[in-house]
Amino acid sequence: MHIHQYEKLWLGMSLLLIVGFIATITYGAVGVGVTMIDDSGGNVDPNALDEHPEFSDPGVEKVGENEYEAYVVARQFIFQPDPIVVPANSTVTFYVTSADVVHGFSVVGTNANTMVIPGEVAEVTVEVGEPGEYGIVCHEYCGAGHHSMEGMLRVVPEGEYNSSDGGEQ
Amino acid sequence: MSVDQETFADRYPQEAELVRRAFLVAFTALGLGALFGIFQALHRTNVLRIIPSTDYYTALTAHGVLLAIVFTIFYLVGLYQWAVTRSLDRSPTNINFTRAWLTLMTVGSAITGVTILLGFVDQIGISADVLFTFYAPLQAHPLFYTGLVVFIIGTWLAGVDWFRTWLHWKQDNPDERIPLQTFMVLTTMIMWYIATIGVAIAVLFFLLPWSLGLIDTVNPLLTRTLFWFFGHPVVYFWLLPAYMLWYTVLPKLAGGRLFSDPLARVVFVLFVLLSTPVGIHHQYVDPGIAEGFKFIAMTNTMFLLLPSLLTAFTVVASMEHGARQRGGEGLFGWLTALPWRDPAFTGMALAGLMFAAGGFSGMINAGMNINYLIHNTLWVPGHFHLTVGTAVALTMMAGTYWLWPQLTNRRLYSRPIGLLQVVMWFGGMALMSNSMHVAGLYGVPRRTAEPQYAGFDFNTAFGSMAELNIQLAVGGTLLFVSTLLFLGNLTLSLGNPKVEGLGQSLPEPLSGAEDSPRVLDNMRLWAGIALVLVVLAYVLPLGAIIQNGGLFGTGGDAYPVSVLGTFDGLDAVLELLGVGR
Ligand code: HEM
Ligand SMILES: [Cu+2]
Ligand SMILES: [Cu+2]
């Protein structure tokens, strides 16, 4: 097959570009350790969240030195709990599931962003920094009231954190 | 009358009629879709809210389905019917079969379209506000899924028709290479058959029976994954007709010839092989799918850049060749020798330019970790209005300016208006898409009637939300006006008198098919490899989803979007038959 000189050059550069992309992303995932949403959260019955040990009472728990777990339920058209209160400078793992349809969970202005699919539990670990307030939006269409579905993540100074804040609705 | 002035309509009057009919449906959908488009652009930004926000999602469902499915695919079948007939110089084996599939597609689109639009009329209780992705457990009226099935069967039969015409041609021409345009049609259809397996299973085995009340639950992650099995290759189903125009018509418009026929074939084969095993890249942030599967999809996606990068080369090289034939000189000076006053040429060239920008924002989408920032934000529609909304849609409109006279034997009403139209689309899209990309970076979600929240504001690094909103609204308005100019220009053309000699021939490529290995024309081989790649990419993730969540999910209710509550289709049918239950 006859291929023009320039075409070969272009082909070579294209392949280089592609391999370069894959390499940077791989480095991001493996080297720097940017974590991905995966299947580690497990499955639940969306109609039986009431009986679930954690999702029956959504909220934040301390699980270790500076480590917290936040159980969040998304349903038409709210997040529970709201607000989610966590202490500054800690590691928080969110477990998010849906009681009805597909929703989204995105802490605005950050990388914490996941789909919320009924039956599945999304697990997202976040390094929380300084105190502040972050909006949470549902970014997947979930019915006629979708545009009103929002929540709040409140990061409070370590001293002011009271474990019941995030735990009760 | 010399042969090269004879038009397609002169030589194939019945086929030309069918092509016009397909275009008629396509352009009706375009007009309606653009109307909903401007509603959305003004509503989201709070510039003007005519409809209640709950109806926004009816409009958005209609916009997505009418433009991304009906407009693009009807244009595709019209163009491909023209291309197969023209390049084989042969009528369909049985034109009634051709009529039949076009009718099926039309009926299917009408059923789904009307079901969606009934969502505006609350009293009727029929609705399909599920957006064009119809993620379960949101549930549309069964007619929504039924229309979809009928439509897809129509497209399958279209492919059967083209393969059959080609096989008969092959019997008469056993030693010839497949003409380039027919090659493009056949490869596209192989890709389509493989891609539609996913959506066909999702709709026929799960969603339709579920909406009829025959099964109680579905696995939302499973039907969603099957949707994206189809959802990514459908992107290439939109793109490949535009590529056909860029490869075979654009060089002619530029005054030259296609650079390389063999490379065009390689590009289409690459699409057959790579376009399906990537769909999971739409699910980077889905729970329930292991990271390894996402990684494989990402790698495949990156390789899928290759055919588009090769296309960029060929398109530019063919244009340069054309410009030099027309006397253009210098490193960049040749650009001025191109026929910029021709709306067909300028439209396609501008569409190509926007595609380059779209390719760039697409590479960002495809990176797994960067995707976290922009997933489901307005960045995403910002991206695909550059690709399907411009690279494809504008190329299709530009191609129409060239093709329409040959299908009707009437001149275009106005070339200057055509030129204004394509430039206005480009300008409007530059504004709309830019503001969408930027708003997306600030976290503004897509698919949201009122992205203004009570508890917080979006932080803008530069500019303000108000400025971005104005940009989006102005851009959307320009696009709407541009659509009206396009439709008006075509309609007025029908008032022009019929004339002779509007036919146009397509020049042979500089490097012809004889330069390429024959194996490229082996459709069975490519279909076989493509299927193997799909199996490799999907068997494990689908298996894991079914193993973890069950074939019909872990439970949960259906959430019908119909206002009257659960619609038990079976009951309704039985009642109609007078049986009762
Ligand atoms: C008059 C020109 C157009 C305007 C003003 C327009 C405007 C918009 C806007 C503002 C959105 C975002 C809505 C939201 O997420 O809330 C949107 C979504 C969309 N547009 Fe367009 N658009 C136009 C043309 C097109 C064309 C030509 C296509 C494809 C051929 C297209 C395909 C889509 C699709 C697929 C969506 C996503 C629907 C969804 O999220 O379910 N649009 N459009
Ligand atoms: Cu929502
Ligand atoms: Cu894709």
Automatic annotation (TrEMBL), chain A:
<dbReference type="Pfam" id="PF00116">
    <property type="entry name" value="COX2"/>
</dbReference>
<dbReference type="GO" id="GO:0016020">
    <property type="term" value="C:membrane"/>
</dbReference>
<keyword id="KW-0472">Membrane</keyword>
<dbReference type="InterPro" id="IPR002429">
    <property type="entry name" value="CcO_II-like_C"/>
</dbReference>
<keyword id="KW-1133">Transmembrane helix</keyword>
<feature type="domain" description="Cytochrome oxidase subunit II copper A binding">
    <location>
        <begin position="55"/>
        <end position="167"/>
    </location>
</feature>
<dbReference type="InterPro" id="IPR001505">
    <property type="entry name" value="Copper_CuA"/>
</dbReference>
<dbReference type="GO" id="GO:0005507">
    <property type="term" value="F:copper ion binding"/>
</dbReference>
<keyword id="KW-0812">Transmembrane</keyword>
<dbReference type="InterPro" id="IPR034214">
    <property type="entry name" value="Ba3_CcO_II_C"/>
</dbReference>
<keyword id="KW-0186">Copper</keyword>
<dbReference type="GO" id="GO:0004129">
    <property type="term" value="F:cytochrome-c oxidase activity"/>
</dbReference>
<dbReference type="InterPro" id="IPR008972">
    <property type="entry name" value="Cupredoxin"/>
</dbReference>
<protein>
    <submittedName>
        <fullName>Cytochrome c oxidase subunit 2</fullName>
    </submittedName>
</protein>
<dbReference type="InterPro" id="IPR051403">
    <property type="entry name" value="NosZ/Cyto_c_oxidase_sub2"/>
</dbReference>
<keyword id="KW-0479">Metal-binding</keyword>
<feature type="transmembrane region" description="Helical">
    <location>
        <begin position="9"/>
        <end position="30"/>
    </location>
</feature>
From TrEMBL, chain B:
<dbReference type="GO" id="GO:0020037">
    <property type="term" value="F:heme binding"/>
</dbReference>
<feature type="transmembrane region" description="Helical">
    <location>
        <begin position="227"/>
        <end position="250"/>
    </location>
</feature>
<dbReference type="GO" id="GO:0004129">
    <property type="term" value="F:cytochrome-c oxidase activity"/>
</dbReference>
<feature type="domain" description="Cytochrome oxidase subunit I profile">
    <location>
        <begin position="23"/>
        <end position="520"/>
    </location>
</feature>
<feature type="transmembrane region" description="Helical">
    <location>
        <begin position="262"/>
        <end position="280"/>
    </location>
</feature>
<feature type="transmembrane region" description="Helical">
    <location>
        <begin position="468"/>
        <end position="488"/>
    </location>
</feature>
<dbReference type="InterPro" id="IPR036927">
    <property type="entry name" value="Cyt_c_oxase-like_su1_sf"/>
</dbReference>
<keyword id="KW-0349">Heme</keyword>
<feature type="transmembrane region" description="Helical">
    <location>
        <begin position="344"/>
        <end position="364"/>
    </location>
</feature>
<feature type="transmembrane region" description="Helical">
    <location>
        <begin position="101"/>
        <end position="121"/>
    </location>
</feature>
<comment type="similarity">
    <text>Belongs to the heme-copper respiratory oxidase family.</text>
</comment>
<dbReference type="InterPro" id="IPR023616">
    <property type="entry name" value="Cyt_c_oxase-like_su1_dom"/>
</dbReference>
<dbReference type="InterPro" id="IPR023615">
    <property type="entry name" value="Cyt_c_Oxase_su1_BS"/>
</dbReference>
<dbReference type="InterPro" id="IPR000883">
    <property type="entry name" value="Cyt_C_Oxase_1"/>
</dbReference>
<dbReference type="InterPro" id="IPR033943">
    <property type="entry name" value="Ba3-like_Oxidase_I"/>
</dbReference>
<keyword id="KW-0812">Transmembrane</keyword>
<keyword id="KW-0249">Electron transport</keyword>
<feature type="transmembrane region" description="Helical">
    <location>
        <begin position="416"/>
        <end position="436"/>
    </location>
</feature>
<feature type="transmembrane region" description="Helical">
    <location>
        <begin position="292"/>
        <end position="316"/>
    </location>
</feature>
<feature type="transmembrane region" description="Helical">
    <location>
        <begin position="62"/>
        <end position="80"/>
    </location>
</feature>
<keyword id="KW-0679">Respiratory chain</keyword>
<protein>
    <submittedName>
        <fullName>Cytochrome c oxidase subunit 1</fullName>
    </submittedName>
</protein>
